[in-house]
């Protein structure tokens, strides 16, 4: 598929997905959503790709959210089953996804970042759910993910005021993992991704799925059911499950196969 609104680069088992509409601060419209849905489908289905990093083209914006000018001009709206940017409703991907936020992350752009497992932000990053200022609401997951990630009162403080939050405050609130100098978000995200690749991808997927499924039920139920989760079963049946202890006993680095 020819990509018009995004770019994809692969570095070993790491896929870098760049939102590429810099002329509108990487704001997204319907065609971009459908394209990105296919990009994430391909990443999810590729056994050789273990981790994805999402970032924005240019040095000003990660993603300014929904392309309101496109919408105001009568452009069609909507997205595929994966949600905004093909990501916000993608609940079946057990591979880690990292947001490298290199500037503005507004509305749907912030919702993309919240849908990722880690957020690495440059010092010039700015986060907000400003939808109420234009008569909308953050219905691509922001109103649900933000309270779960930073607590109800803190999330209400951001959502009801629609205020802008700096990368530093995002770190203090708990939705940002690391703040780095401007221009270094992608480099830092790659550093995190490379650390993750030191671990078994089967274990990483089992861990992510267990967290996600476990948070949806009681602690007692989560512990009782976790060994029946598909990714946990896949881990136990994998060659990596044998390789890890064997490498430890032989005092050598493990050779992960991801199967």
Automatic annotation (TrEMBL):
Keyword Lyase: yes
Keyword annotations: Lyase
Domain of life: Bacteria
Gene3D superfamilies: 2-enoyl-CoA Hydratase, Chain A, domain 1, Lyase 2-enoyl-coa Hydratase, Chain A, domain 2
A single GO BP: fatty acid beta-oxidation
One of the record's GO molecular function terms: lyase activity
Keyword Cell cycle: no
InterPro entries assigned to the protein according to its UniProt record, in alphabetical order: ClpP/crotonase-like_dom_sf, Enoyl-CoA_hyd/isom_CS, Enoyl-CoA_hydra/iso, Enoyl-CoA_hydra_C
Alphabetized SUPFAM superfamilies for the sequence: ClpP/crotonase
TM annotation in the entry: none
Family affiliation: Belongs to the enoyl-CoA hydratase/isomerase family.
PANTHER family named in the record: ENOYL-COA HYDRATASE, MITOCHONDRIAL (PTHR11941:SF54), ENOYL-COA HYDRATASE-RELATED (PTHR11941)
Protein's name in the database: Enoyl-CoA hydratase
Organism: Bradyrhizobium neotropicale
Lineage of origin: Bacteria, Pseudomonadati, Pseudomonadota, Alphaproteobacteria, Hyphomicrobiales
């Amino acid at each position: 598929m020819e990509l018009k609104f995004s770019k994809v680069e692969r570095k070993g088992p790491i896929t870098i997905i760049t939102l590429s509409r810099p002329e509108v601060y990487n704001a997204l419209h319907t065609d971009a959503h459908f394209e990105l849905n296919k990009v994430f489908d391909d990443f999810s289905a590729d056994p050789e790709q273990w981790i994805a990093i999402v970032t924005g083209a240019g040095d000003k914006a990660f993603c300014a959210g929904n392309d309101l000018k496109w919408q105001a001009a009568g452009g069609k709206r909507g997205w595929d089953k994966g949600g905004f940017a093909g990501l916000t409703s993608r609940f079946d991907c057990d591979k880690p996804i990292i947001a490298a936020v290199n500037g503005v992350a507004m509305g749907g752009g912030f919702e993309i970042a919240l849908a990722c497992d880690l957020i690495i932000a440059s010092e010039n990053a700015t986060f907000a759910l400003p939808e109420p200022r234009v008569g909308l609401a953050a219905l691509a997951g922001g109103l649900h993910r933000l309270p779960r990630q930073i607590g109800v009162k803190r999330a209400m403080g951001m959502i009801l005021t629609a205020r802008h939050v700096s990368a530093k405050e995002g770190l203090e609130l708990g939705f940002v993992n690391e703040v780095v100098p401007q221009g270094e978000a992608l480099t830092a995200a790659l550093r995190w991704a490379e650390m993750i690749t030191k671990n078994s991808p089967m274990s990483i997927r089992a861990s992510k799925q267990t967290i996600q499924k476990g948070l949806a039920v009681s602690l007692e139920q989560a512990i009782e059911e976790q060994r029946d989760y598909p990714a946990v079963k896949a881990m136990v049946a994998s060659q990596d499950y044998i390789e890890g202890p064997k490498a430890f006993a032989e005092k050598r680095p493990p050779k992960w196969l991801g199967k």
